[in-house]
Amino acid sequence: MLKLENIHAICFDLDGTLVDTANDLAFAAEEMMEELGLPFGGVDEIRSWVGDGHERLIHRIITRHLDGEVSENVYNIANPIFHRALRSRQYRSTQLYPDAADCLRKLESMAIPRACVTNKNTAQAYEVLDHLGIRHYFTVVLGQDSVAEPKPSPDGIFEAAEHMRVDAINVLMVGDSVNDVRAARAAGSAVVAVSYGYNYGIDISSANPDSVINNLNAIPKMIA
């Protein structure tokens, strides 16, 4: 197992890393598409499109293409439908990945500061973390609306490092997508990727993180 030295704090991605939100996002997507009179491709498509915030996700769902764009008029109709359906769902199918909570507990006992850096909006990230009972593990939660530029920009890592009073070079980024790897590289941080996340349906090892792990409980062992 890879051993990491001089790690003083950790930034975690949220969707696809700590929590699986795909089923609830698929529910909201299906409701939206039904009201728009369009076919819905199912939860597997959702899993391959998560990672750049809900705005981009809505464009992808409607166009069924990773780089798809709908008109401003269509987006303005679709957006409130999607979020109304998501709120009504109340995260009932969102769940922690195995050993996520255990990993956070161990890091807390090791006095390793932790941040959540996500491309979700900050308020939505807080809702998910509160729902799953893990918000208290984080010194700071930064969504895409809390930083100048979302991942793959390093802004979230830099700001989290400042909150946790460490240098970015001493931060470990833990995520599931190429955005997390690129953000960490740009910040000068180490990066470990989980094998089970979304990453647009592409094997995360192709992004060349420092290590790929199958279980979050590997993290405390890497930095012990």
Helix percent reads 40-55%
Number of helices: 9
Number-wise, the strands total 8
Taking the sheet with the most strands, its summary is: 6 strands, parallel
Average pLDDT for all residues: 96
Round the Cα radius of gyration to an integer and report it: 17 Å
Through-space gap between termini: 12 Å
Structure description:
This protein has 224 residues and is of the alpha/beta class. The chain has 9 helices and 8 strands. The protein has helices at 22-36, 43-47, 53-63, 72-89, 100-109, 122-132, 155-164, 178-187, 218-223, and strands spanning 9-12, 19-20, 95-96, 114-117, 140-142, 171-175, 190-194, 211-213. The strands form 2 sheets. The chain has a 6-stranded parallel β-sheet, sandwiched between helices. Helix 1 crosses helix 4 (72-89). The radius of gyration is 17 Å and the shape is globular.
Concise structural overview:
43% of the residues lie in helices and 12% in strands. By secondary structure, the protein is an alpha/beta fold.
Layout of strands and helices, then pairs:
Elements: E1 9-12, E2 19-20, H1 22-36, H2 43-47, H3 53-63, H4 72-89, E3 95-96, H5 100-109, E4 114-117, H6 122-132, E5 140-142, H7 155-164, E6 171-175, H8 178-187, E7 190-194, E8 211-213, H9 218-223
Parallel strand pairs: 1-4, 1-6, 4-5, 6-7, 7-8
Antiparallel strand pairs: 2-3
